[in-house]
Predict the 3D structure of the following.
Amino acid sequence: MNPFAGRIERFRRALDERGWIGALLTPGGDAEYLTGIRRSRPNATESHMHGDWLAGVLVTGDSCIIIAPHLAKSRLEEMMGDKPWINELMHIPEGADLEHLTRHIVDHRLGGPGTLAVPRKGMAQTILELSTLYPEMEFANTGTILEPMRAVKDAGEIEAMRKAAAVADRAFAEVVTRLVPGMTEVDIKMEVERQLFLGGAEGTSFVTGIMIRGQGCDGPLEGVSRGADHRLEPGRVLAFDFGAVVDGYASDFGRTVFIGDPDPELQRIHELIIAAQAEGMRALVPGTPAEDVDARARAVIEEAGYGEAFFHRLGHGIGIDVHEWPFLSPGSTATVRENMCFTVEPSILIPGRCFVRVEDVVLVTGEGGVSLNSTDREPVVI
Amino acid sequence: MNPFAGRIERFRRALDERGWIGALLTPGGDAEYLTGIRRSRPNATESHMHGDWLAGVLVTGDSCIIIAPHLAKSRLEEMMGDKPWINELMHIPEGADLEHLTRHIVDHRLGGPGTLAVPRKGMAQTILELSTLYPEMEFANTGTILEPMRAVKDAGEIEAMRKAAAVADRAFAEVVTRLVPGMTEVDIKMEVERQLFLGGAEGTSFVTGIMIRGQGCDGPLEGVSRGADHRLEPGRVLAFDFGAVVDGYASDFGRTVFIGDPDPELQRIHELIIAAQAEGMRALVPGTPAEDVDARARAVIEEAGYGEAFFHRLGHGIGIDVHEWPFLSPGSTATVRENMCFTVEPSILIPGRCFVRVEDVVLVTGEGGVSLNSTDREPVVI
C-alpha cells in the first residue's frame, strides 16, 4: 500500500489538533515525505524564480496542492501524474500578482489567517511576505509534527535505506582497489562519486568528504569542497565520509585507510574508534535516551584519554535527509525508538597527525542497533 | 583597496537610516558580498548542525561577527585570518544553550529587540525562535539594501565575471570537439563539468543543464538532474546551459548544437534567437526600464509567431549568485544601470521538436550591453 495518503492524513490530523490552519512546505525533506515529489538538486549559488517564496506543497483541511513557479511547472506536472493524493497544481506565471495569489490562498484555501506551519529551512521571505499582508498570522515549525513521524521508518523506507547503504559499501570496495600513492583528495573524491553513480545512486547525500591527514598535512574538515590537493603518502591517514541517495533515501558512510602500516598509536586509535562504535550500536535499544547513547560511546574514547579529540556528536538520524531528528548528542532530549535509523560515527582528530573515523548507518531493533552496511571495520592498509 | 570594509560600512549606514538594529546573514550571497567569507557547497539533502539557525554573519552598530556552529568553526577561523574587517568569531558548542546565546546577542550585541534584517533565503526557524523569545521583534529583508548594492559591479567584480565567463567559453570549445553521435546527456554533462574544473572553476554556478530534444525526444527542462539518457542522434537539437564559479563570481552560458544540418524551420528559429538576443543587448542602456529590455527582445520572437514558445523571462542579474536582482522580465520595476551584469537568454521550446537557446552574460556600459563571453553565435552543426 502506498504510504503517502496515510502520511498526509496523519499530518492533517495533527495540524487540526493544534488548531493550525495548514502548512506550506517549501521543497525539501518534509514535502518529499508527504507527497513523494522529489526536490531538485540544489544550485551551488542562490537562484530565484518569480514567487519562489510561495512555492511548494500546501496542505489545507481538505486538499494537498502543489504551488509551482513557472519554470518548475512541467517537471512537477510530470511527477504528479501517478500521485492521486495530490489534488491540484496551482501555477505561478512569470510576473503574476503575488499579493492576489497569496490572498486567494489564505482567504479561500486556508479559511483565513491563523497559524501556518512551515519547515525550519523554509524561506524567511515566506514569513516576511505573509506577515506584511496578514500581521495577525503566526507561524510554527512543521518539525514538531513531522520529525517524530519521519524518524520511525516503515518497511519500504528501511528497504530503501538498505539499498542506499549497499551502494556506499560497493563504492568503497571499488575505490579501495584503486588507491595508489600520489593520488590527491580530489582524485579520490571523483572516483568515489563515479562509483556511487555506477552503483545506482541518484545523487550524493551530501558533499563528499575525502580527508588526508598526517605527516604535517592538515586543514579544516568542513571546507568549501571537502577535498583538496593533499596526497596519499606513506605515514598518512585517509578518512572517507560519503553517501548516496537511492529511491530518495540517504546513506552516510565512513572508513579510514592507512598509507603504510600504522604506528602503534594509530593502531590503538583505530581500535578505540571501533570499540566506541560497537558500544554506541549496543546502546541503541528502544527506550534509551539519545544522549545516553552518545555518552556510552564517548566514555570509551574519554577513558583512553582522547576525549578532547572526539569533537562532535556521535551521530544523527538519517532518512530522506542526511541529518534528521533525533541526534545522538550531549543534551539531546529524544528517546530511541524501534525502526529509527542513526549514523554511529565516532572519530578522533589530532591536528597534523590523523583524522580517524568509522561510520555506519544503524537500524534500531528490539535487540539493539544493527548496521545496514556490510563493509567490515578492520583497518585497511595500502 | 579592499572593498569589504567599505561595503560593511555602507550596509551599516543603511540599517541605521531605517532604524533597524542590525542584520543576521545566514551563509549565502549577502554574507559573501559583505565579508569575503565563502559559503560551503550545499548538501544535496538537508543537513543540521546545532544552532545552525543562529549561525552566519551578525552585523551590529559597531561589529561584524561570525557566529559559527561547532563543526564549521575551524574552517571559518582559517578564512577569517586575513580579514580584519571581521571583528570576532562567536562559537556555538555542541549542545550549547541557544536561548542564553540568543539573549546575549539581542540584549548585549544588538542593544535590545527591534527590527532585524535577514536574507530572503534565511531560515524560517531563525524568525520562529527569535519571535518566541522576543514577541515584539520584527524582521526585514536584507535585499532591500543589498540588492541594489550588489547589482552594480565594481572593477574587481567585473574582472572576476570576465574570468568566470572565459572558463565557460573554454569549456564549451573543448566539449564541442568531443561530441559524437550516441553520447547521452549525462555523458556530455560529465565532460562539461570536467572541462569547467580543468579550466579553473571552483565549482559550477548551478546544476548543469544538457538538454537533447527533437525526433520525439522530450521531457521537462528543469528536472532533478537536468540531464538524462537522451542520445545525440541525427535530427536532434542539443542545448547547453551551464556556468562556473571563479573567484566567487558566477557565469551562465548557453549555446545550441544541431546534430546534422538543421531543417529550414530550425535554421529560422536559431536566427530568431540570435536576433532577439542582439536586440536585448542593444536595449541594455543605462536608464532603460528592465521590463522594456525583455519586451524588445520578446517582440522579435513574437512577431515571428513564436511568442508562446519563449516561455520564460529574458534574463536575470548575475554576480556572486547566478540569479540576482534585477530581472529582465515582464512586470519588473527595476531600471538598468551602468556596470550591472545580466544574462540575455531568449529561447524557443517546441515540445518534442527543439529547445533552442543562446545565452551570454552581458555587462551594461554607456553604449549598451557588451558580452563578457567570446564564443560566437553561429549555429554549431556536428
